[in-house]
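Whether sequence alone determines local backbone shape is best considered at the level of individual chains. The sequence in question and its structure tokens are set out directly beneath this paragraph.

===
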Amino acid sequence: MTMPNILLITTDQQHYDALGVKTPQLQTPNLDRLCREGTRFERAYCPAPVCTPSRASIITGQYPSHHGAWTIGVKLPEDVPTLGDHLIAAGYSTALIGKAHFQPLASAPGSESLECQPVLRDLDFWRGFNQTWYGFEHVELTRNHADESHAGQHYAIWMEERGLSDWREYFQPVKGETSSKAPRLGPKKGYTRADRSWALPAELHYTTWTGERSLAYLDAHSEGGKPFFLWASFHDPHPPYTVSEPWASMYDPADMVVDRVTPGEHDRNPPHFAKTQQENPDFGAWHTPFTAHGCESHLYPEEELKRDKATYFGMMSFLDAEVGRILDRLDALGLTENTLVVFSTDHGHFLGQHGLIAKGPFHYEDMLRIPMIVRMPGKVPAGAVSNDLQSLVDLAPTFLDAAGLAVPGEMQGVSQWSNWQGGEAVRDFVLCENRHNPRMPHVETYIEQNHKITVYREADYGELFDLASDPGEVNNLWDDAAAQKLKARMLRAMVQGIMKSEPTRMARIAGA
């Protein structure tokens, strides 16, 4: 058997409907092409709706509660076996280009991080960086989204090589610096910018960099004799909402239709949902010891939200153009036929749905469900749409299976390779974990084809939705008297699902 090349292309924080085939107003011709040439999975989910744990699950095949990187600001231990480790042992070349986010923005004894200051800005360190890192023999990285201050690493080296010696001026300042060309902060400083149009030229944007460096890797490995695994990891459409021209002006905010909260829908939800619709909500101990993402007021002017959505769409169209360049290069190099291409994202996004913005401990489909497209000519059906359940935790075992390799016992995901080739559904449930601090908020969701239940640590409240009759998730059935039999069944099924997903890294080889 010829081992296939594996190309994983991801975005960051992309809503499952943010594809041209789903939302015609959004122009993504290259992703639409991928849908025509492969299978689009409508019911794919993330294992955790924040970056680090979900990304760590992609390369380990484990849930965050097992691989150790249980939220952002937590390091993925470097001794956890990864997909790349197994592929290298089988003769693959491996590479990660773009965003990693396996390590925190701070460093401490026992949790040393390469993805923090001042290491991010130590360009001599990154010029000489040549170690295998989390199973990737070749890495080219940058940590920032948009103009965030933690830009640096290989992306900064690339900007300097292209003559942009003052690149720091285009990003928010780190301590002791000033930035004359960085966008002005917006009404929600972490997510928005008053300047949606970023002065940084598009040809020097990190989206261009990720695409260009991915092309260079393909060129270098097109005739190497070894199969490759390349993760092209794009950073957008994650906020802050600012992007280079012409993409910043591609969509008119006046044409954007944004979702808003349905009156009364949070009356039946756990109390933190209603708090998001208050001016100055008190989330108490949920912010201990660190701020819990999204646990704040989500009240936000509709006109600003429209501007954000227009920018979000521009970001998507920008990265779609780079995806197109990558697909065209596969064709030009004669690699298309033997390359398994998977496109997805790390988790979803709110742009006003249920009155929410960005992300947080709100396990709606907008947050947990993700786009997923799979293409391999002659193997994966073209032009197909599937409703079979998928999870990012399944990518590592599926890639190994597609390469003809055994799936190790430490992986908790299941191989979807037979399903991707048009076979029967492999999964009948999906699990999603979400933990922000050592105790709370700590959330677990169990999803079946038609129903979904969410449980909170140390709490009597929860969520229960009938996705068939209530796809918009506005009628929480948790306390509904008529739904208590369903609730009991779903709770039992959730426990069984968690038990079924426990890893068995070591095989039993003796009676004792």
User: Anything to note?
Assistant: The radius of gyration is 22 Å. The first strand starts at residue 5 and ends at 11. The chain has one domain: 5-260+301-428.
